[in-house]
Amino acid sequence: MQTLKDQRVVVTGGSRGIGLGIVEALVARNANVTVVARDAGRLAGVKDRLGVGIAPGDVTDPALAEHVVREIRPTVLVLNAGASPPMGPIHELTWEAFSTVWNTDVKAGLHWIQAALRLPLARGSRVILTSSGAAIAGSPLSGGYAGAKRMLWMMASYANGVSDELGLGIKFQTVLPRQLIGETELGQAGAAAYARKKGVPVEAFLASFGAAMPPAQIGEHIVTLLTDARYEAGVAFGLKGDLGIHTLDA
Question: Has this prediction a pTM greater than 0.70?
């Protein structure tokens, strides 16, 4: 895509944190953005400030995914919504806590990917899934989080295989922020837990990743992935404050 102007874009989980940073970057490029999230009040605030369309609801609901995809027919779909995992070592977590991210991020990813393939979206459409650097390095204090984020990465590859087999021309890609984002609730919770374990201040732990990468910068990276031909063919991309965008494809 050479330009995002007037492109129909749906962003799940776009009312706060990384998702909001992505929405702001897309709106700045004059994309026609619809934000999907559970908190209707927060969504209304984003609509008033940015002029986006909104679709309140639970992103794990397959009926919502099918309805939004069918009604809007986006050319870009950004699957960013996810849960904050309960923090704790593996021997202290219940199964319900351990599987939180599987039952939200992965479940939602499955239903929205299926909606994109079954409609299907128009040829040349892009679907971006937000994963995490934990999919590479692990995350021992967040239960099944790392495995769930790795699964999203694999699901993008699986979806590309189906798209190719059916001749749909839809491209599925995943982005992996490879550091905790201190400006988000998830990043703050994770940084606090790991800082306690290491016996260092939260600020020092976050600084260990190098240059910070706020949500606005992640939004700019997403825009670059969508508009720069260098990133059209890849499947997995790491994002880091001091490295920018880098491929993770073998």
Answer: yes
